[in-house]
């Protein structure tokens, strides 16, 4: 009977979306594992396990009949990422269109790319290597493709560099990669992976039906390797004019359809075999050989990487995190790099705070950091404590103490926080990452609670160790600064490109984003806020509507829009006892502001009754002192409710915060009162119609 394979043992994902690509991948393995991965409801893919040069490999491919494109590729890799939590990196290996250039403007760009050659994505000073050429911003100055894909991981680039350095002609007969290729060819009884005749390699001129004359290559050096930028799009290229425009504009060596959906989800190297030239002469004659040649190069990469350097799985190391890895995590590469760069440095405990508007993705960023830390430092304990309130914090501390095996933590009068602090502060605890999520209430951290055990200041219970790092997430920048000092990582709103990727990954029908005008309009209405995007996606998926339908709902009367944004929805990456809808997610922040800074709460109520854009600070009601006024504005800015315009001392209130707070005022029957206050203030500022009497 076949055994059940352990997801946690596999560290490399080999993504081969087409059946012929998957066959080539399996042919390159040293051995295929006898067994199966358990499937659960919601799984869309079946994986094959194997081994190569000591690496445990999972081969992931599409179901039969799957449509091509970055959306489908993203769906596959998202599930790989969620199920295989110890993946180090992925290799996307398969076929693509090659882009020869026989008459370039610069001689260095002369490329005699032929069918069966191998294309390897390598970044240069101007590009990360993958160009998503059909998703971006269409402006008066022209079309600008999607921001930045993640780079090929450094370890893969190092292996590529090793091949370039030590194997000048890797596919020359008798060389290493040629031998890998020959083994697969000999094992296939049908001879499908053999190289077709060079007479089957036909390249036609761009504007006329004229065959390009090329000298045959020496059969011993039939296959060459090319390094550079690869274009990734959502449609199959059959237009040679458009193909050459893209080649020349972005300096491309090839075109494919999956990398743009993968690179920002898993660290990925892209290797492609050339099976056509992106024109109307497409056929499948070259697919098997091109797939096998790319697979041989991928094997060369894995054989160049010593398996001893990869992290080993140790299931005895505590990993206490309340959520599975988010398969739809998108973007935030700069913030992740900054966070990872601040962990485990110096001779004292590293403390970092992640801050930003509620719903912008702070918890998701911390969650992705936790899983990356686990994969990178396998001996590192990862501990997660929700700090929403003192009760949830105490319960989480007790759970951590139990997992760490701390004696006496169950005693009635045990000071569990002190016990955990003492345990982690010892050198024997080893390396650890401690995450405090939702550390918004600074009073909970710095106020004395009483005289009972565990009643000291929470901030004094933080462990101290050279081997430890503490990460806080907080909506309140003031609280973040008190907890982590200058070590603050701000999470900004998503840009349009990354927000589009998140939308596409989360939709049941990713093709809905192909309506670019609707996509742009919807994301703008949702202010590119991840929580608002996910809430919209749930509604769209459940009701089977298109983006334009949801847009129509967003331009209804204010009360109807609030109803839409107040709908509860299931989100596995958020706490079950918290309010998920956009319209209610900021209420806890508003209550904290009312408690700590009444003038800030008054200012927020005031601004909710006027246009949210370009509010002069002098229009706000005067406070008890200039200092109090400055602190009140600082509080609203610290929660990211407002942004300042330094040039003219004006303020902008976040549009969805404006809408949500108006809803709160309406429910509390305070909207009319607040509106009256605004009218009184306006009459003072604008006593008559003479503009000379205006004081702003």
UniProtKB/TrEMBL annotation:
<dbReference type="GO" id="GO:0003824">
    <property type="term" value="F:catalytic activity"/>
</dbReference>
<protein>
    <recommendedName>
        <fullName>NB-ARC domain-containing protein</fullName>
    </recommendedName>
</protein>
<dbReference type="InterPro" id="IPR035994">
    <property type="entry name" value="Nucleoside_phosphorylase_sf"/>
</dbReference>
<dbReference type="GO" id="GO:0043531">
    <property type="term" value="F:ADP binding"/>
</dbReference>
<dbReference type="InterPro" id="IPR053137">
    <property type="entry name" value="NLR-like"/>
</dbReference>
<dbReference type="InterPro" id="IPR027417">
    <property type="entry name" value="P-loop_NTPase"/>
</dbReference>
<dbReference type="Pfam" id="PF00931">
    <property type="entry name" value="NB-ARC"/>
</dbReference>
<feature type="domain" description="NB-ARC">
    <location>
        <begin position="335"/>
        <end position="506"/>
    </location>
</feature>
<dbReference type="InterPro" id="IPR002182">
    <property type="entry name" value="NB-ARC"/>
</dbReference>
<dbReference type="GO" id="GO:0009116">
    <property type="term" value="P:nucleoside metabolic process"/>
</dbReference>
């Amino acid at each position: 009977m076949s055994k059940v394979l352990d997801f946690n043992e596999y560290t490399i994902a080999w993504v081969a979306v087409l059946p012929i690509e998957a066959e080539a991948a399996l042919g390159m393995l040293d051995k295929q594992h006898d067994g199966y991965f358990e499937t659960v409801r919601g799984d869309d893919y079946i994986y094959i396990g194997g081994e190569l040069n000591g690496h445990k490999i999972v081969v992931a491919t599409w179901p039969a009949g799957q449509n091509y494109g970055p959306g489908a590729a993203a769906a596959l890799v998202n599930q790989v990422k969620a199920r295989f939590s110890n993946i180090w990196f992925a290799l996307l290996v398969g076929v693509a269109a090659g882009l020869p250039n026989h008459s370039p403007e610069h001689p260095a760009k002369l490329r005699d790319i032929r069918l069966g050659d191998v294309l390897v994505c390598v970044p240069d000073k101007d590009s990360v290597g993958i160009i998503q050429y059909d998703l971006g911003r269409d402006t008066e100055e022209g079309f600008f493709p999607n921001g930045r894909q993640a780079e090929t991981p450094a370890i893969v680039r190092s292996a590529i560099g090793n091949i370039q350095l030590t194997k000048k002609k890797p596919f020359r007969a008798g060389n290493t990669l040629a031998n890998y290729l020959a083994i697969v060819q000999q094992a296939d009884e049908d001879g499908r992976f053999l190289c077709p005749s060079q007479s089957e390699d036909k390249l036609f001129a761009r504007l006329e039906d004229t065959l390009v004359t090329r000298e045959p290559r020496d059969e011993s050096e039939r296959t060459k390797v090319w390094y550079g930028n690869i274009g990734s799009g959502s449609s199959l290229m059959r237009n040679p004019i458009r193909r050459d425009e893209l080649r020349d504009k972005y300096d491309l060596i090839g075109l494919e359809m999956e990398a743009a959906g993968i690179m920002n989800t898993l660290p990925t190297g892209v290797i492609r075999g050339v099976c056509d030239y992106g024109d109307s002469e497409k056929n499948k004659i070259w697919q098997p050989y091109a797939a096998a040649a790319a697979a041989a190069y991928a094997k060369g990469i894995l054989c160049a990487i010593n398996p001893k350097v990869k992290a080993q799985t140790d299931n005895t190391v505590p990993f206490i995190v309340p959520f599975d890895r988010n398969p739809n995590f998108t973007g935030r590469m700069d913030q992740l790099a900054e966070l990872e760069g601040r962990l485990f440095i110096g001779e004292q405990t590293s403390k970092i705070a992640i801050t930003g508007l509620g719903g912008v993705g702070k918890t998701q960023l911390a969650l992705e950091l936790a899983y990356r830390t686990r994969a990178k430092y396998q001996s590192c304990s990862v501990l997660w404590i929700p700090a929403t309130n003192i009760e949830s914090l105490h319960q989480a501390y007790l759970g951590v103490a139990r997992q760490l095996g701390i004696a006496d933590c169950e005693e009635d009068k045990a000071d569990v926080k002190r016990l955990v602090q003492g345990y982690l502060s010892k050198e024997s605890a080893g390396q650890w990452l401690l995450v405090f999520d939702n550390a918004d209430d600074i009073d909970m951290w710095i106020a004395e609670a009483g005289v009972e055990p565990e009643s000291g200041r929470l901030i004094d219970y933080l462990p101290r160790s050279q081997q430890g790092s503490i990460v806080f997430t907080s909506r309140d920048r003031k609280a973040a600064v008190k907890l982590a000092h200058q070590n603050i990582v701000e999470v900004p709103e998503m840009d349009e490109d990354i927000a589009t990727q998140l939308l596409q990954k989360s939709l049941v029908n990713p093709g809905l984003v192909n309506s670019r005008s609707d996509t742009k309009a919807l994301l703008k209405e949702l202010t590119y806020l991840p929580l608002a995007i996910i809430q919209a996606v749930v509604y769209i998926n459940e009701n089977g509507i298109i983006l334009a339908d949801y847009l129509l709902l967003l331009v209804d009367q204010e009360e109807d829009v609030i109803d839409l944004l107040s709908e509860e929805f299931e989100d596995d990456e958020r706490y079950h006892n918290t309010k998920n809808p956009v319209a209610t997610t900021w209420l806890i922040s508003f209550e904290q502001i009312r408690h700590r800074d009444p003038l800030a709460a008054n200012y927020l109520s005031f601004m909710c009754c006027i246009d949210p854009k370009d509010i002069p600070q002098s229009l706000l009601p005067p406070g008890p002192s200039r200092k109090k006024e400055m602190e009140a504005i600082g509080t609203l800015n610290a929660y990211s409710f407002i942004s300042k315009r330094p040039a003219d001392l004006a303020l902008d209130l976040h549009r969805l915060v404006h809408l949500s707070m108006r809803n709160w005022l309406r429910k509390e029957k305070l909207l009319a009162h607040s509106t009256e206050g605004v009218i009184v203030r306006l009459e003072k500022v604008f006593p008559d119609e003479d503009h000379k009497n205006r004081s702003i």
